[in-house]
Amino acid sequence: MSEQGKVALFGASGAIGHSVVQALRAQGRSYRVVGRSRSSLQREFGADPRAEIVTWNPEDLASVREAARGVSTLIYMVGVPYTDFHLHPVLMRRTLEGAIAEGVQRLVLIGTLYSFGRPRTERVTEEHPREPHTYKGRMRKEQEDVVLEAGASGAIQTTILRLPDFYGPGVERSFLHGAFRAALDGKRAQLIGPIDPPHEFVYVPDVGPVVTALADEPRAYGRTWNLGGAGVTTQRKQVEQMFAEVGRRPKLMALNRTLLRVLGLVDPMLRELVEMHYLLTTPLIVDDSALRGLLGEVHKTPYEEGIRRTLEAMRASDAAAHSVPSLAS
């Protein structure tokens, strides 16, 4: 991307955004971070002289155009609240309109597996039918369609990288985050069950290098790509490893769909999870052989190592939060 012009990270403040930033820093590249809050962006990225901070209002086309001005590659990671998934295609259309108007050459969307719907095969390739049976899946599919149609029009080159569930240092929006916290605190881990069907998780620090490599690869555009985890596991195995890492016997409790629905009466987030519960009962394991064929080796941190690193980062964060600065003499 350094040879191809400026890269902008729209939605840089999320976990994936930070991973991409780390990859860019490791490569000595400059980059633009785009978000709503200048103070937040300044706090997160202001210490890096290679970071250009730009705020935007995604509801305003003029603001979108200003954020995209002078950019060659746009990496789109904009999140919306789980209750506002209708905004995904809306914001995507506006971003593409602004990007195309400003002459942005390439756009990479970091997406999810929701658009596939229920899996028909043991391993899901990029050619698997996209027939979502959930509202969130339909909104994600519509977002993907907007991106793919823009690419097919010739106005901009586009590609999509789909990720399964993820975990890692600083990743609080994960099925596993509460379990990490419970293991450290010696409490009972609350999970959304069932917890024994096959599942996969991506370790977030592994994502950034894949995104930058994909964005740099001319052959990546005009289609979609899957990135899988470091193998098939289960929620139970992950949690048992967390507790073993801290030297404690595992304690856990799984919420079933019925209890999830009941708790959703008072918790909007849990209420929104009900329709996506099929991802826990019907394993959706991706085949990412196409991505590996394109990029060559794709590093995937083993689960045991990823769990250890995540716990270490949480311990360090806890220690920093509880430390008392010494007074200068």
- CATH homologous superfamily label of the domain at 6-171 and 204-229 and 283-300: NAD(P)-binding Rossmann-like Domain
Residue runs with pLDDT of under 50 for 5 or more positions: none
Tell me the helix content: 40-55%
Could you give the order of the helices and strands?
EHEHEHEHEEHEEHEEHEHEHHHEHH
> Strands across the major sheet, in which order?
3-2-1-4-5-7-11
Q: Strand portion, in percent?
A: 15-25%
Silhouette: globular
Instruction: Please count the beta strands (DSSP E, at least 2 residues each).
Output: 13
Mean pLDDT level: 94
Radius of gyration: 20 Å
Briefly note the structural class of the backbone: alpha/beta
CATH architecture of the domain at 6-171 and 204-229 and 283-300: 3-Layer(aba) Sandwich
CATH topology annotation of the domain at 6-171 and 204-229 and 283-300: Rossmann fold
Largest sheet: 7 strands, parallel
| CATH class designation of the domain at 6-171 and 204-229 and 283-300 | Alpha Beta
Protein name: NAD-dependent epimerase/dehydratase family protein
InterPro entries: Epimerase_deHydtase, NAD(P)-bd_dom_sf, NAD(P)-dependent_oxidoreduct
Domain NAD-dependent epimerase/dehydratase: 9-228
Pfam families: Epimerase
